Amino acid sequence: MSKFSLKIAAAGAICAALTIITLLYISRDIMQGVYNLPVVLLVLFVGIMMFYLWIDNNQTVFIRDLNEMVKAIAQGDFSQSVIINKDDELNNLNESLKLMASKLNSRLLKTEHEKDQMETILTSMVEGVLAFDITGRLLLMNKTAEDMIGITFVEAEKRFFLEILRNHQLADLLKKCLSDGSRQVIEANLSPTDQEYYRVYITPIIGKDEVSQGVIVVLRNVTEVRILEQVRSDFVANVSHELRTPLTSVKGYVETLLDGAIDDRPTAKKFLTIINTETDRLNRLISDLLYLSKLETGRIELAKKWISSQDMLDHIIKLLEPVALEKNITIESTVNTGAGSVFGNPGMLEQVLINLLENAIKYSYDGGIVNIEISICEQGRSIKVIDKGIGIPAESLARVFERFYRVDKGRSRKAGGTGLGLSIVKHIVERHRGQVQIESEEEKGTIVTIILPIN
Ligand SMILES: Nc1ncnc2c1ncn2[C@@H]1O[C@H](COP(=O)(O)OP(=O)(O)O)[C@@H](O)[C@H]1O
Ligand SMILES: [Mg+2]
Fold first, then answer.
1. Cβ < 6 A, ligand 1 pocket
2. Do 384 and 364 belong to one domain?
3. Digit-coded pLDDT (tens) for 19-75
4. Is residue 148 part of a domain?
5. Residue 184 maps to which CATH number?
6. Ligand 2: centre distance to CA 165 (Å)
7. Which CATH number is 416's domain given?
8. Within this chain, do residues 257 and 329 fall inside the same structural domain, yes or no?
9. Please, are residues 55 and 49 in contact by the beta-carbon 8 Å criterion?
10. Ligand nearest to the CA of 400
C-alpha cells in the first residue's frame, strides 16, 4: 500500500473515532432526557457524510494504486501489485490485472526468445537476406547481406532498393514482384563494379490474408561455381580440340591414300607411318584423360609401401631407353646415402617418373644427358629430374602444370605430347601429400623436384 493511501486511511479512522465520540456524547444527553433533534440530525448527517467520504477516499486511493500498477506494466515492469484485503469487485479487478501482467510477461519473454533465435539463424546464414516492405523500403538485412553489399543495416534501413544496390535490372524485378507477386530468379553482379557473381531470389512475403506485404531478396554467391563451370567448359573445348587435331590429320592422309597415293608405295608407307603415330597419340591422350579423371575422382586407391629406389629407377630407365637412344641421350641415375627406398604407391610413382623423364628427353638437345637423383630431405625423400635442354620461359613456368598447357604446341605435338603429363604428376604428388617444384632457364635446362613425405 502506498504512503498516500496510508495517510487517507488514518484520516478516515480519526473521522470515524470523532463521530463515535460525538454520538456517545449525544446518547448521554438522550439518556438524560435532554436532546436537541436538529443537533442530533446534524451530527448523524455529518457522521454519515464522513463515513462515505472515508470509503470514497479508500476507493480513490486503491484506483490510484491500480493506475500506477498499470503504468508500471506498460513500461515493462511486471513485478508491481496492489495489496487489498477486501473481497469485492475491485479486488477481483486487481487479481485479473495481476494475472494479465504475469501472462504478458511470459508472452513477452517467449517473443524475445523467438526473436533471438531468428536473429541467430539469419546471422549464421551463408546467404544474404534482405526484406522490403510493400512500399519498397528496407525492413531487415542480415550480416551476410551487409558484407556482400558493403553497407550496414543502420545505414540502409528504410532506404529504397536502388539506394542500397545499384543494379537497375534487379530493381525492376523487385518492382515486378511487389506489383504482381511473381517470384524472380536471376544471376547478376550486385553493382557494375562488382567482381562477384550472385544468384538472386526475389520472393513475395504473403501474409495470412494472402495479400503481399513486401518482398524477400536472397543473395547466394555463385562466383566459385561459375569459375568451375568455366574451367569445365574450357576443358571440354580443349579435349575436343585435342581429339579433333589427330583425327583430322588421319582422315586427311586416308583420303589422300584413297585418291591414289596408295599406289605409290613409298608415299603410302610414309602416310601410313604418320597415321600410326597420330593414332598412338590419340590413344595416349585418351589414356591420360582417363587416368586424370580417375585421379580427380579419387577412384585410384592410394596404397603406399616402401619401394627400393634403385629397382624403381632401373625399371623406368629400361622403359625409356629406346626413346632416349633415338636422340642419343644418356640417362644417369643416382641414389644418395640414406635414400635406398621411397614410400609411395608404386604404380603412381612410376607414372610420375615416366612423365618427367619423357619430358626431360623430349625437351633435351640430341646427345644430351638426363639425370635422375633420389636423396633424403627434411620431409622424407626428394626426387630430382635434371636436363640441360631447351628450358621453359619464365612467364610460362607457373602454367606448365595446367591441363593442356604447352609452351610450344607444335613442338610438343611433334614429340607425341598430350599436354597432360605435368598435370598428372601434380595430382599424384598431391595425393601423396607431397610437393612438386620446377626451376628452369631457357636454353640452359630444367630441374623438376618432387618432395615425398615418408608417412
Ligand atoms: N623438361 C622440360 N623442358 C622444357 N620444357 C618442358 C619440360 N617439361 C615440361 N615442359 C613444358 O611444359 C609443357 C607441359 O608439359 P606436359 O604437361 O608434360 O605436356 P607435354 O605432353 O607437352 O609434354 C610442355 O609442353 C613443355 O612446353
Ligand atoms: Mg609431358
1. 355, 359-360, 363, 387, 389-392, 400, 405-408, 412, 417-422, 446
2. yes
3. 677 667 666 666 665 556 676 677 667 767 776 677 667 777 777 777 787 778 777
4. yes
5. 3.30.450.20
6. 49
7. 3.30.565.10
8. no
9. no
10. 1
**Do 366 and 327 belong together in one domain?**
yes
Residue from 359, 386, 397, 425 to probe ligand 1 pocket by mutation (most atoms less than 8 Å from CB): 359
Mean predicted lDDT score pLDDT of the chain? 87
Question: From CA 282, how far away is CA 355, in angstroms rounded?
Answer: 17
Taking ligand 2, which is a single-atom ion, which protein residues have CB atoms under 5 Å away?
A: 359, 417, 421
The predicted model gives 331-339 an average pLDDT of 96
Of 213, 227, 136, the residue nearest 173 (C-alpha): 136
In which domain, by residue range, is 408 found?
305-453
DSSP classification of residue 440: E
Ligand nearest to the CA of 368: 1
Say how many Å lie between the CA of residue 289 and the centre of ligand 1. 16
Same-domain check for residues 172 and 269: no
Closest ligand 1 atom to the C-alpha of 418?
21
CA of 28 to the centre of ligand 2 (A): 135
Ligand of minimum distance to the alpha carbon of 417: 1
Q: What is the pLDDT of residues 87-112, one digit of tens each?
A: 667 777 777 877 888 888 888 888 88
CA 68, chain centre distance (Å): 52
> Which three cell numbers mark 356?
618427367
Amino acid at 237: A
Indicate the residue among 237, 266, 296 that finishes a domain: 296
The closest-lying atom of ligand 1 relative to the alpha carbon of residue 445 is 3
Q: How far apart are CA 239 and CA 408, in angstroms?
A: 17
What letter does residue 261 receive in the DSSP assignment? G
Q: Is residue 66 part of a domain?
A: yes
Domain count, the chain: 4
Give me 329's grid cell.
641421350
Q: Tell which of 176, 193, 221 closes a domain.
A: 221
CA 286, 292, 296, 299 dihedral sign is positive
Q: How far is the CA of 359 from the centre of ligand 1 (A)?
A: 6
In this structure, the answer to whether residues 321 and 446 fall within a common structural domain is yes
* CATH number of the domain within which 251 lies: 1.10.287.130
Mutating to test ligand 1, I would choose from 282, 388, 412 the residue with most ligand atoms within 8 A of its C-beta, which is 412
